[in-house]
Amino acid sequence: MIESAPLHRRGAAEVARLVATGAVSADEVTRSTLARIDELDPVVRAWVYLDRDTVQAEAATLDQEARSSRLRGPLHGVPVGIKDIYDVAGMPTKAGSNVLADATPAVRDSAPVALLRRAGALIVGKTATTEFASADPARTTNPWNTGHTPGGSSSGSAAAVAASMVPAALGSQTAGSVLRPAAFCGIVGFKPSFGRIPREGVLPYAWSLDTMGSLTRSVEDAALLLRVLTRPDWAPAAGSAASADAGAPRLAYLPRIFPDLLDRSMHEMLSSAALRLQTAGAAVEEVLLPAGFDASLQAHHLIMVAEAAAYHLRTFPGKLHLYGPRIRRSIEVGALVPATAYLEAQRVRRDIYERIAPLLARFDALLAPAAAGPAPETLEFTGDPAFNAPWTLFGLPAITLNGGLDANGLPLGLQLVGRPNADEALLATAAWCERALGPATAPPAFA
Amino acid sequence: MRPKPAGKQPLKLLTAQAEQVYGPQRVRDLAAQIKLTAAAIAAVAAYPLAPETEPWPGRSPALVQIDDSGTRT
Q1: 3-state secondary structure of A268
Q2: Largest distance between two CA atoms of chain B
Q3: Looking at the partner chain, which of A208, A345, A420 has a beta carbon nearest the beta carbon of B64?
Q4: What span, in angstroms and rounded, lies between the C-alpha atoms of A333 and A172?
């Protein structure tokens, strides 16, 4: 980032450095953030709740502490957006649903928000989500072209970061809800290993799949957020720590994954990116996934709808008529999935994981599309999560990087998938690839 | 007149009744979701599984580590 870049274009790590050194105050950061939101959100519609008074008062407190050389942590003075399925004390959690239209403000922070506050983050407000993080879209538009979806379910978080309203936001992923919106919005979306970030105080979608993640504009910021958000009792995997001077990675290139779903522009971008990474020194080897891998999508579907039905029918009884059509039919049909089919799906999940484990062991990361193509031209559909769902199913860390633009100027995202629980190693690989491919750029109308 | 037992009514008649109650779009959407889910159940049932394969996670995935040499530990 060049020194002359406006404050709103600075990343989380850089804002933290500026506040820590006194070059910028948290109050200035807050004013810049709120002004940016006021200017752009009537078009982008990324935010569903802002608490101006509280965030400004919090900024004043942080400035006072900074002047006394008391920095809370590595996010001191950094504004962060929170997907509206996370509880934030004093703000209602409505999850984009009429079911929660009358929700009262949460009494306490969800665990990830509490970790952010402890690190000094400024909680600006709530970002729009598809209904209960499922498939009924939010009103959010894509900053690269407002006639296109930003993706979902973390729609507002991705759009807010892409439009440089905040440098970072929280998302969640049950199928492809962090990586796909990141791809459509041309930013970095990181889903660490299942369980790495705590989820107490976050509305569930499907318990055995839900993974908390982040939306940022750089891998450096994704790594910073992971350090802050890691659950206190997380035990790092042996041999998973990243080396600071990680060399050129070994990448398993997957150009043939779900070929019937893949857009030509995505295929071309992925080929070009693989070549650029190879030219930069990466060892890129084209590989095939084991036979039967496609069943991961069916297993994922059964597990997701059955778990969603179990949660929603018990938690919000008698309210089916208030749900949007997509999540409603998922709940209704999910309730019909036989227990034996659910357990068979969990066995298939286990078996496919065992089959891909040797492949994961040979490489630093898998290189695959982050989505079928660019953001679809609609606000009624948030895109197909098929390219992300298997990795969520297996609890593997995955990250989206911007691979370039298509002929219409829309971002195309590539996905790196890491080894089990090796989050830091994946981030090191992603940082190397980001340097080789170039950083995420801003949408022209929202630079 | 008492309706005939549901199981003996023709599918078309049931569908028409459902469309009157719920609207045609919702019936179509629900039918599509049922087909998708039925196909998923069939695909999972057809997947070859060894008898000893346990449901996920079996042993916790956190316990199935792969070190840098590719050895599962």
Answers
A1: helix
A2: 75
A3: A420
A4: 23
Residues of chain B in contact with residue A381, where contact means CB-CB under 8 angstroms, are none
Please judge whether B54 and A337 are an interchain contact, meaning their C-beta atoms are less than 8 angstroms apart: no
Q: At what angle do helices A26-44 and A52-67 cross, to 10 degrees?
A: 150
The ipTM assigned to this model is 0.91
Decide if A347 contacts A318 (C-beta within 8 A): no
Identify the DSSP state of A442.
P
Tokens linked to A424: 């830091």
Residues A208 and A421 sit within 8 Å (Cβ to Cβ): no
Q: Which of B34, B59, B65 to mutate to test the interface with A (most CBs of A within 10 A)?
A: B65
3-state helix/strand/coil string of chain B = CCCCCHHHCCHHHHHHHHHHHHCHHHHHHHHHHHHHHHHHHHHHHHCCCCCCCCCCCCCCHHHCCECCCCCEC
Task: Name residues whose C-beta falls within 8 Å of residue B12's C-beta, 6 or more positions apart in sequence.
Answer: none
pLDDT in tens, chain A (447 residues): 445 789 999 999 999 999 999 999 999 999 999 999 999 999 999 999 999 999 999 999 999 999 999 999 999 999 999 999 999 999 999 999 999 999 999 999 999 999 999 999 999 999 999 999 999 999 999 999 999 999 999 999 999 999 999 999 999 999 999 999 999 999 999 999 999 999 999 999 999 999 999 999 999 999 999 999 999 888 766 555 555 456 899 999 999 999 999 999 999 999 999 999 999 999 999 999 999 999 999 999 999 999 999 999 999 999 999 999 999 999 999 999 999 999 999 999 999 999 999 999 999 999 999 999 999 999 999 999 999 999 999 999 999 999 999 999 999 999 999 999 999 999 999 999 999 999 888 999 888
Q: Which pTM was predicted?
A: 0.93
> Least CB-CB distance to B70: which of A240, A362, A421?
A362
Which residue is listed with tokens 């580590």?
Answer: B65
Distant-in-sequence, close-in-space partners of A117: CB < 8 Å, separation ≥ 6 = A109, A123
Question: Could you tell me how many CB contacts below 8 A there are between chain A and chain B?
Answer: 109
Distance from CA of A194 to the nearest CA of B (A): 9
Closest Cα to residue A430, out of A398, A390, A396?
A398
Name the residue among A127, A15, A16 with its Cα closest to residue A81.
Answer: A127
- Taking an 8 Å cut-off on Cβ atoms, the answer to whether A239 and B68 are in contact is yes
Identify the helix (H) or strand (E) that includes residue A405.
strand A398-405
